[in-house]
Design goal:
Two copies of one chain form a homodimer. The first copy, chain A, has 381 residues and is α/β, with parallel strands linked by helices. Chain A has helices spanning 19-28, 76-81, 94-103, 114-125, 139-149, 198-202, 217-232, 244-249, 251-261, 269-275, 281-288, 329-342, 347-361, 373-377, and strands at residues 58-63, 67-73, 89-91, 108-111, 129-132, 154-155, 166-173, 179-186, 204-210, 236-240, 264-268, 294-298, 304-307, 312-315. Chain A has a nine-stranded mixed beta sheet, sandwiched between helices.
C-alpha cells in the first residue's frame, strides 16, 4: 500500500532501555493527592463565548499514535477469510498492510489515532489541546498535521524523515457498525522521549496517554517521561487502556501503572475485565475502585459508569437515530469527559458530555466529529 | 499543501498541437446513426444475478481528471473571504492550493474526479467500466488507484513520475449542502493521447468524456483520440459539460463538439443555458434538441429532462430524507443513466436510475456511493 517500504517491520526496539529501567522511571511518576474538584461542587459554566482565553494554558496534552485511518465497509466473511478478530486492533507490518489494502474495498481517508481523535474532539468542544505524535514527511503526514492544526490544536512534533512512512490504520466497518482495526504504525512508532517538550506538558491540566503506546518501546519511554513531568508539576495524568488485546500483551505493566501513577483511567467493559482477568464487570469494578481518582468505564449502549473511591455514578447512553460506525466512540467519550473535567464539572456531567460526543461520532463514518461539538452540548449539560 | 512543489503552475501546454489541429481531428470523429435502442423497446432485465459476464467487454470507458477530493465543511463567509464563486469549479496552481489548504478546516480524503466518480457509480450498479486518467507515483496516487480498482474498474494508466504530484480537488461544503471546488490538477493534467489504448476503447459500448478535460491541452488531445477510435468502431461517445465556467471558457469548441460528434450529452441547467447563452432553460432545450441522440439535463430537486430528437421525457427527483452534500450528484446521475443505457433501457428508465444513484450520494459526505447501488435499484426500475 501507500508508499510503505515492503518488508520493513515495525516495533523494532530503537534503544537499549530495559523494561526494568522503564518501570523504575514509572516509580518516579508518583501521583499527587486526589483532584480537588469533586462531584457536587458547583461547575464552571462554559458556553461558546467562554472559550479559553488565548493564553498558553492547555486543557489536555495527549501522546499517541499519529495515524491516518483508511476506512472501508466490509462483510464479516472478509474478517474470517483474513483471520482478523472482529472488534480488535492488531499491529501489522508493511507487507501485511500492503496485502490487506489490496483486498479491501474503496476507502475513505480521515486523520485518526485514538488520543489524537480525543484531542480533536476536545478542540471541537471548545477546549485547548496539544498532541505529541510522529508522522513522516509525506502526503499522509501532511494530511494528519493539517487536520489537527486546523482545529487549533498545538502539534509541533517534528516529522520523521528516515524511511518509515506515516502510519495508517485499516478499519473495516461491518454491517453491525462494529469496527475492526489493523494498524501499520510506520513513523508513529518512532515517537520518543525527545519529542516530549517539558514546558508544553507543564502547561496542560491533564496529560493523556494512549494505551496503544505500550507497543512501541520508544513511544512508551515518551509516555513515561511525560507522565513524570506532569506529576512533578502537580498536573493530572490520564490513561486509556485502548484495547483488550493491548491489555493482554502488557497486563502486569498496565496494572502497576494504573495502581501507582494514573489519576483518571478510561476503559471499556472488555478492557477493564481483561486488566483484572475478572469474570464479570462488577468484579472488575470492585478490583479497580480506589486505584485512581476517577475510573471511567464505557459500556456501549448500556452507557457509562464512573467509579470514584467512594461512589459509583451511572450515566445512560445518549439516544441516537442511526448507528453507522462505532470507530472513535471511546475516543470521543474521553474527549467529552476531559473537557468537562478541565472545566471543573462533576463526574456525572463529565460522563454526560462524553456520551453526547460519542453519540455524534457513531452516527457517521469516521472517528472524528463532523459537526461542532460545542454547538451540540450548548444548553444540554 | 500535500507535497505539491511550490510555485509550479498547472496547465502549461505540453505540446505544440494547435487548436486548429485539434478541431481538425474532432472533424474526424463523426457520429454514427442514432443508437438503435429507443424509448419504448422492451428492456433487458438486470438484477444482481445478471452482472455482465467476465469477458473483456466494457460498458463504459471514461477519460477524466484523476483527482483525490479533500472535503471540508465551510461557511459562506469563507468563500467570500477567499473570493471563490459558490457552486463553481476553479483551477488553481500549487501555491494557491497550498495557501487555501492552510486555511481550510479538518478534511476528509476520498477519491474523486467527475468521470471517475461516474465509473465508480457504474461499477457499484454492477456495470463494467474502465478509466483513463493520470495520477502520480505518490501516496494520493496509490489511494486513487486502489479505490477505483477495488470496484472492479480497469485502471491501467501509467502513473506520472516527473514532478507533479497527484491532483486534488479542495471541496468546500456550505451549510446549504452546496459544494464549491478549487482544483489543483497536478499530474491529472499530464494525461495524453499515449495513455489511450485503442483496443480498450473499442471494447466499450460508450466512451465517456469529462468536459473538464478541455482545460489541459494534452488531456483534450487524449479525449479527441478516444472519441475518434470509438466512432470508428461504431461505438457511442458521451460528454458531460462539467461546469458552467468550463463551458464559458470553451463555448465555441464545446458547441462544435456537441453538434457534430457527441451521441449522449449530459449537462445541468446552468451548463446547458451557458452553452447557448440562453435566457431560459426552455430556450436551451430548443437549441439543443436534435443535436445529439440523447441530451440528459439535470435540474437538482426539479428532476431531469431527457431530450431526444422527437420527444421530451421528464423524470422527477428521487425523494431524500436529508440533503448533506451535493458533491457528485451529476456524476452519479450520469452513472445511473449510462448503466441503464448500456443495458438497453429506455430514456425514462435510464433517468430514473440516474435519479436513484444521485439521491444516494447527496445524502452523505463525498461524491462516491457509500452503499451498493445495485442493491438500491433492485426491483425499483
Amino acid at each position: 500500500m501507500i508508499a510503505a517500504p515492503r518488508g520493513s517491520v515495525v516495533n523494532e526496539p530503537k534503544s537499549t532501555t530495559t523494561k526494568d529501567q522503564i518501570n523504575q522511571k514509572l516509580q518516579n511518576t508518583k501521583k499527587h493527592p486526589v483532584h480537588d474538584r469533586q462531584a457536587g461542587e458547583s461547575p464552571t459554566p462554559f458556553t461558546a463565548d467562554s472559550m479559553p482565553p488565548m493564553t498558553t494554558a492547555l486543557d489536555v496534552i495527549a501522546i499517541g499514535n499519529a495515524l491516518v485511518d483508511v476506512l472501508a465497509h466490509a462483510q464479516d466473511s472478509f474478517l474470517e477469510q483474513n483471520r482478523i478478530s472482529k472488534g480488535s486492533m492488531s499491529l501489522i507490518d508493511a507487507t501485511r498492510a500492503e496485502a490487506l489494502y489490496e483486498t479491501m474495498g474503496p476507502a475513505v481517508e480521515i486523520s485518526g489515532g485514538s488520543a489524537a481523535n480525543s484531542i480533536a474532539g476536545l478542540a471541537s468542544l471548545g477546549g485547548k489541546g496539544a498532541f505529541i505524535g510522529k508522522v513522516s514527511a509525506d502526503q499522509l503526514g501532511s494530511i494528519f498535521a493539517h487536520d489537527i492544526r486546523s482545529l487549533g490544536v498545538e502539534f509541533t512534533t517534528r516529522p520523521h524523515r528516515d524511511g518509515a512512512p506515516t502510519g495508517r490504520c485499516l478499519i473495516f466497518v461491518t454491517p453491525d457498525a462494529q469496527r475492526t482495526m489493523q494498524t501499520f504504525l510506520g513513523s508513529a512508532a518512532q515517537v520518543g522521549p525527545d519529542d516530549v517538550d517539558p514546558e508544553q506538558v507543564k502547561r496542560a491540566q491533564v496529560t493523556y496517554l494512549e494505551g496503544y503506546l505500550f507497543d512501541p518501546p520508544e513511544a512508551k519511554r515518551a509516555f513515561v517521561k511525560a507522565a513524570e513531568i506532569a506529576h512533578d508539576a502537580h498536573r493530572k495524568v490520564a490513561l486509556t487502556l485502548s484495547d483488550r488485546f493491548c491489555v493482554d500483551r502488557h497486563r502486569a505493566e498496565f496494572q502497576e501503572l494504573v495502581h501507582g501513577h494514573i489519576d483518571i483511567l478510561f476503559a471499556n467493559e472488555s478492557e477493564i475485565t481483561a486488566l483484572y482477568q475478572a469474570g464479570s464487570f462488577d468484579t472488575a469494578v470492585q478490583a479497580v475502585r480506589g486505584k485512581c481518582d476517577l475510573v471511567v468505564l464505557t459500556r456501549s449502549e448500556k452507557g457509562a459508569v464512573v467509579v470514584t473511591p467512594t461512589e459509583t455514578v451511572t450515566v445512560p447512553a445518549e439516544p441516537i437515530t442511526r448507528l453507522v460506525d462505532t470507530t472513535g466512540a471511546g475516543d470521543q467519550f474521553a474527549a467529552g469527559f476531559l473537557f468537562g473535567y478541565t472545566r471543573g464539572r462533576n463526574p456525572r456531567d463529565c460522563a454526560r458530555l462524553g456520551a453526547i460526543a460519542a453519540a455524534e461520532v457513531i452516527q457517521h463514518f469516521g472517528a472524528r466529529p463532523e459537526v461542532s461539538l460545542a454547538s451540540l452540548i450548548q444548553g444540554r449539560v
